[in-house]
Amino acid sequence: MDKELVTVKEGDTLRRVFELFRTRDYLVIPVVGDEGGLIGMVSMAVLKHVLTDQRMWEWLVVSDVMEPAEHSVLPDQRLEEVLQQMGLMELEQVTVVEKAPPRRPLGMITLSHVRRAACQEALHRQQPKELAAPANGQS
Question: What's the pTM?
Answer without folding.
Answer: 0.77
